[in-house]
Amino acid sequence: MIRIQQLNYAYGQKQVLKNIDLQFPEQQFSVILGRNGCGKSTLFKLMAGLEPVQSGQILYAGQALSAYKAKQRASLLGFLPQFHKTVFPFQVKDVVITGRAAFSRFHPSRQDWQLVDQALADLDIEHLKHRSYTELSGGERQLVMIARILVQAPKVILLDEPTNHLDVYYQSYLMKKLRQLSRQNFTVIAIMHDPNLAFLFADQLFFMRQYQVIQPDDHARLTDPVFLKSVYDVEFHEAMIQDKTIVVPDHSWL
């Protein structure tokens, strides 16, 4: 679905992406991991078309994003940025329906409103439908914005830190939902900080360090403590939970 080739990007003289080559498989849940400032969010901005490609290319189904018209792009791609804010006290249903703007020309149909109800039900937030968005908690706002993407019904969903502000229950709930969406003809790609959530739920994992994509040696596991130290500059220990491997930071050096 998505192919990135020899992608480089700089803010002035500061290089923030270096020779990025990636392929994201269709209808799977992929996660990009790495420390703050390693280039993950910049990569997403380029993938979402929010910044122009300076060098290299990003292809969706073989075409650059700029080749798609506005309505085609809305059907192709949904993007949740890391930060979003509104100062207007719109009701939740009115925030979510804006995800249909490219298709309804701001005159929502009955079917559009049915999609809103379905998205709210899918995320178990129907009770928020008539609440003011500005009165919601950070976690509730995050779920509302994800519902806004779902009513758009794009083929690709990009999520920058989707579990931010969510408690443990909703983190697990949302990760299960994202994995489920990838089984329902969506290609889901997320930036995350928590490797354990990614290990438990994602199909594909990609790691970034110092503006580049890195992968472990051929015979090393993604949970290998030596590899993870090269990503996070922190010592890790592996632990088994039933049939799943998780990692625990070593705090002995503190």
Element-by-element helix/strand order: EEEHEEHEHHHHEHEHEEHEE
Per CATH, which architecture of the largest domain?
3-Layer(aba) Sandwich
Largest sheet descriptor: 6 strands, mixed
Overall CATH class of the largest domain: Alpha Beta
Count of domain modules: 2
The assembly state of the depicted protein chains is single chain
**What is the overall shape?**
globular
Helix content: 25-40%
**The CATH superfamily title of the largest domain:** P-loop containing nucleotide triphosphate hydrolases
Task: Give the low-confidence spans.
Answer: none
Strand order of the largest sheet: 6-7-8-3-9-10
Overall structural class, as computed from helix and strand content, comes to alpha/beta
**Gyration radius, to the nearest Å?**
19 Å
Indicate the CATH topology of the largest domain. Rossmann fold
- N→C terminal distance: 43 Å
GO molecular function: ATP binding; ATP hydrolysis activity
Function: Part of the ABC transporter complex HmuTUV involved in hemin import. Responsible for energy coupling to the transport system.
Protein name: Iron complex transport system ATP-binding protein
Keywords: ATP-binding, Nucleotide-binding, Translocase, Transport
